[in-house]
Amino acid sequence: MSLAGEEALTNASSTALETPPHPPASSQAEKSEALARHSTAAAAAADVEDHLCLRSESNPYGLSFAFKNPEELVCFKANTLREINSVGNSFGSSGSAWHRSNKIQKSYKPQRSYKTQNAAIKRMLKPVDELVAEARQETSDNQPQFRVAVWGSFGLNIVLTVLQIYAAISTGSLSLITTMADAILDSSSNLTLILADRAMKCVNPRRFPAGKARLETVGNIVFCFFMISVSLVIIAFAARELVSQPMKKGTETFRIEPIVIVCVAFASKLVLYLFCFSLRNRYSHVRILWSDHRSDLLVNGFGILTSVGIWLLSAIAEFTLLASVTASVETQQLITYVCLTHSFVIQGIDTVCVYHSGPRLTAEVNIVMDPENILAETHDVAEALQIKLESLSHAERACVHVDYETTHKPEHAFRKNL
User: Fold this and answer.
1) Where are the alpha helices (DSSP H) in 323-374?
2) C-beta separation of 17 from 336 below 8 A
3) 8: closest CA among 351, 346, 389, 252?
4) Any idea where the Cation efflux protein transmembrane domain is (predicted)?
């Protein structure tokens, strides 16, 4: 298989990608006959057909021929181990250990790259309708868990706030006062996230034509700065207590109730942390709650400075989403391949730009079409592509621009002269 199409997909922002002409049936038959001459290749092709359910129009670049089935990966691993053993025997006992470990480390890289390549091929060759159906099914399946994570965290934080207020008032301990302040702000921050999520779902299209998806990121940033503020207040109170400690005499009376309350709070946060762990990469809201539970565990176990660093990194990550950071390479590859295979009328792609607009994505695509085409045909193809891109998971909006050549300068300037 020629790797030109695959290399083009790796750099999704590259310009002037040309769609290949659809191969005639005779060329497909010749490829099938050539594959049938080799039993291994025939088995690989059959395995690809079983796993990918390919259609001829969805695989114009022949990406399926680069798919490595499990048998090929096993053979590759066996050949690598055989090479390692031969290297160890040739260098003897003195240098064999170093060369063997070096070879083992290098052998993992090709295997990981093949697995990554297989995942990319499966993702790109899967029809868009199937991707949309899987995303909807996953969302509906995870909706009960999402509600439990959000409302369970909010309800538990309310209960823990009441318990820790009692423990702090009854003992007067600074450490319990700081955990009480942390619990109060936890509840306030949870309420902020819930209100931001509800505001995001109630959209007036005339006032907010692009939606309110960025409110989720704004709520996450507010939550992060809430928790950073709590951590800094705790540090300030602790420093003041350490300075004034030599002036105090005697010790406080030991009570078992506050210790039990702190242990219950720690165990509850651990359970919520484990529950939110599986949903953290699917919902931005749950990811922030997961970070909150992790921070609370670290505060109780390893110190407050760790919590400050974690929340600062979380806030920076949310800020980059608002600043329109580029999407992941896998997402750019998928959108580029969808554009290339959308219609035979599309002659090529000038540019593909995919970036975050809050938690979701905006795609700007410049496709190339024949200038002799009628306006109705050009419009219908571009509009169908826009609808297809906006149906993808995590896509907020898609803008499709039609060109008739690729030699012009970029349409958008990065610097604005005011």
Assistant:
1) 329-340
2) yes
3) 351
4) 153-314
- Tens digit of each residue's pLDDT (9 = 90 or more) over 124-178: 888 777 777 777 776 666 667 777 777 887 888 888 888 878 877 877 666 677 6
Supply 325's token pair. Answer: 């950071």
Distances (CA, A) of 248 to 42, 144, 214, 241, 253: 83, 52, 51, 10, 14
pLDDT value of residue 54: 46
- Note the pLDDT tens digit of each residue in 89-106: 555 544 455 555 555 555
Domain match, 44 and 99 both = yes
Q: Which domain holds residue 340?
A: 1-30+325-418
Domain boundary, last residue among 93, 126, 159? 126
Paired tokens of 389: 């891109």
> Are 114 and 168 in the same domain?
no
Spatial distance between the Cα atoms of 35 and 43, rounded to a whole number of angstroms = 9
pLDDT in tens, 265-306: 778 778 878 888 777 777 766 777 777 777 777 666 555 556
Q: How far apart are CA 416 and CA 418, in angstroms?
A: 6
368 SS3 class: strand
147 in the same domain as 65: no
- The answer as to whether 109 is a domain residue is yes
Mean pLDDT within 114-122: 81
Return d(Cα 41, Cα 69) in angstroms, integer. 10
Q: Which two tokens stand for residue 379?
A: 């419009």
Whether residues 344 and 414 share a domain: the answer is yes
Mapped onto helix, strand or coil, the DSSP state of residue 326 is strand
pTM for the model: 0.61
**CB contact set of 254 (below 8 Å; sequence gap of 6+):** none
Same domain, 218 and 114: no
